[in-house]
Design goal:
The protein is an all-alpha fold and about 50 residues long. The chain has two helices and no strands. It has one domain.
Length: about 50
């Protein structure tokens, strides 16, 4: 994986915005975090 394809964000909203800008049909996106970070919200938003 190329380092330019790895991102980190301060908020869930920033992450969702960037993912929606970048994602294309057929992309696979890994969202890795603990449950305490509530990343399920990111998955729910980008799955819409």
């Amino acid at each position: 994986m190329n380092a330019e394809n790895v991102h980190e964000f301060e908020t869930i909203e920033e992450a969702v915005e960037k993912i929606k800008e970048e994602q294309k049909q057929g992309d696979v996106i890994l969202v890795k975090a603990s449950n305490g970070m509530h990343f399920k919200k990111i998955v729910e938003e980008i799955a819409k």
